[in-house]
Design brief:
alpha+beta, Beta-Lactamase, 6 helices, 44% helix
Length: 164
Amino acid sequence: MDPANFSRTILDNFDLNIVLLDNSGNILNYNNKWIDFAVDNGNPDLINSEIGSNYLEVTKRAIFEDEDDTANLAYNGLLDLIEGNRDRFELEYPCHSPEEKRWFLMHASRCKGQDNIVIYHENITEKKLAQLELRSSKEKYRKLAESTDAILWEYDVQRMNGHI
């Protein structure tokens, strides 16, 4: 197997949307999960996501179309990478579909020894939903504690019994 096919085979085994950009932000290559994600989100022709598209320009347009600060953060982080002001960049963002709420963590970094940038998007929906549920539970507990006339306290049985 030649090295290019070997690299592609490895990238296709990750459950991550992976894309490779040149130092101008143009898409050079991507893995099959990149294609799957586009198809699943109603973009089977990879419009603005195909090889040759400028990822940075698409992100810049999203700033104005979505009026979302997340797109602005992504654009500025990627611009910093392209300009060599940083080597890595991460950004958590929502990417909800009509069927479900989803969150992703974008990881972007400069390729060592090259002028290319690799970006991958990690689906963190389960983790995010757990965080939101924990926050909601804490808020309910806080409201309960504030609304009761009873005295609430914590008691550490092991400490009181001299075990620690």
